[in-house]
Design goal:
The complex is a heterodimer of chains A (261) and B (400). Helix content of chain A is 78%, strand content 0%. With 261 residues, chain A is mostly helical. The radius of gyration of chain A is 19 Å and the shape is globular. Chain A starts with a helix and ends with a helix. Chain B has 400 residues and is of the alpha/beta class. Chain B has 2 domains: 238 residues, P-loop containing nucleotide triphosphate hydrolases (Rossmann fold), CATH 3.40.50.300; 124 residues, Distorted Sandwich (Coagulation Factor XIII, Chain A, domain 1), CATH 2.70.50.60. Helix content of chain B is 25%, strand content 36%. Chain B is built from 8 helices and 18 strands. In chain B, strands 5-6-7-3-8-9 form a 6-stranded mixed sheet, sandwiched between helices. In chain B, a hairpin with a 2-residue loop joins β8 and β9. Chain B is globular. Chain B starts with a strand and ends in a 23-residue tail after the last strand. The model of chain B has no long low-confidence stretch (mean pLDDT 84). The chains are: A mainly alpha (261), B alpha/beta (400). At the A-B interface, α2 and α6 of A face α1 and α3 of B.
Amino acid sequence: MAGLIKEIAAHRDLLSMLVARNIKIRYKESALGFLWTLLGPVFLILIYAFFMKIVMKFPIPMPVLVSGIFVWQYLAMCLGDSSFAIIGNANLVKKACFPRLLLPLSIVLANFVNFLLSLLVMGVYLLIVGPHFGSIAWLPLALVTHLALCTGVSLGLCALNVFLRDVQHLTGIFTMAWFFLTPVVYEISMITPITTQHPILGPLYFMNPMAGILALYRTALLGSPLPDFPLISLSMLVSVIVFVAGTAIFQKLQPRFPDEL
Amino acid sequence: MSDIAIQVEGVGKRFRLRNAGGNTLKSLVMDMFRNGADTTRELWAVKDVSFTVERGTTLGLIGANGAGKSTLLALLAGTMMPTEGKLQTRGTISSLLELGAGFHPDLTGRENVFLAGAIMGLTREQMNRRFDAIVEFADIGRFIDQPVKHYSSGMYVRLGFAVAVEVDPDVLLVDEVLAVGDASFQRKCLRRMAEFREQKKTMLIISHDLNTIQTVSDQILFLDHGRVLGHGAPGKVIGQYETFWREAMSSERRREWGTREVILTGAQFLDESGRETTKFTWGQALTVRLHYEATTPVGPSVFGFGISDENGHLVHGNNTQIEHVTIPALSGKGTVVLKLPSLNLAKGTYLFSFSVHSADHRVNYHRLDHAFAIGVEASKQFEGICYMPSQWSQEPPSCT
């Protein structure tokens, strides 16, 4: 792991260029450019707001919905893009010699930059609609855990997709299931009655790292009550495990990429 | 310490070929994490390859498609890992494995140049210093700030080549670059490669253009099916390669049939000095000693021959009957001699066919089609594949 970090540090110029490339390419020749990073989630928010609040009369406050969708969007973007991080750069992987980990990492980081910008926009929105910010000190922890999770998932997925293209198709379905297992369009407090029915249900729910991460964001941004610390720690622990496992899978498989592409 | 730039010892690279459709999810998952032998078919793209390249010299790699040349270069570039053996390279390596491999169509030339530089491990400042030279060498002017998807294929390749050479590596790997670009760019590339040699840089070059590779290489490595068949001085190894290739071609095209009462057992090709060879020169004599064996005694017979070009088109053919040479009854072993006093063929590879049949053409004893290949070198220039002795003159101008 230390060697890997050293290698990445030695290629930081390349990493920053790849990140810039990914950001540029996403918005090249689109009239609205970066706005799409915002418009995607905004439309999602409007759709969910319409169906949940107006059609189904589901009592979800707008800031909760907005924060949920924006935070979720980062993971969803990584899930969607990472499958192609290696197979979409087959030429580079086969013909050039550099740490291949930079390819998925640059996608995760490019999306992270977009996410930070959209977070800024969300901050402005929250200021306008008025409620109090929460304990903003939790934000860095949320961001780091979120980043680690997205990195781990992306590395693992893009490596496996080289050998088994079914991965990219499964990812879509998996993302959908994960979306509803995560308190994106509902509040954690709404499922507390269920998760407290049995001592195993709470930890089981927070085994989904996104549950804890989203709780941290909402504590930081909306001042929602922080769930029990052991539960949050569990989410963070799983994120770290995913990060380590994803990196390990990638590094184990990457020498064989050029043979398979 | 030593002057060895590249050292390759017993290197092999195995690819696993997947059986189409025969993969279960489980076998795939098992396969991914296992490195040993398994049930899937294997292909050794490179096997038991050993050689060294001294610093400042150029090694040319030749061989048919699929011989393992590109795999070997990929192993040296470090993009692939050898299955067995050891590779050592000293100094920085720049590979022209594929020109502009890392270029993204939506980015401008400028952005791609910096990205390519970073991929090759150069910092932004190092690239800044080289940028002007790159644009100048590539000769693409204002297009440098256009997305490369608007480039012509020539501009694309020129920019790719410019980046790779201006990176100024210790070792340059070149895969079939000389086949692309127009004549003036090719000359530019060759000049740049000559400069490289003067600067005592090491190069590995793949090319199918034997003339070029012979002039730029100090040593040639001849690969076939992943194995080294020849290594040494360019003239010697290229000759070896040409002979090998001719043999491969004749064995591939070879057809034989007949009643086999008389069998053509072999043919020796001799040049003017009586030396056995398959390499001939335009205008010189060629002699074939065609050996036969009559397993059953037969009556008057006819021997014939034909010469075809590489594509199988008949260039010339005749037989003993046409030339009024009577071959009486045949029995036991014997030899007939065919002499072509002056070989009037253009440069290239030609295939000889021979036949023996009864004088009344009723029985075809033995026929060997496209069984022997020869190479012809021609110093004489003319159009077409066959030279007709020709005389030109001008009549005195008329006064009308």
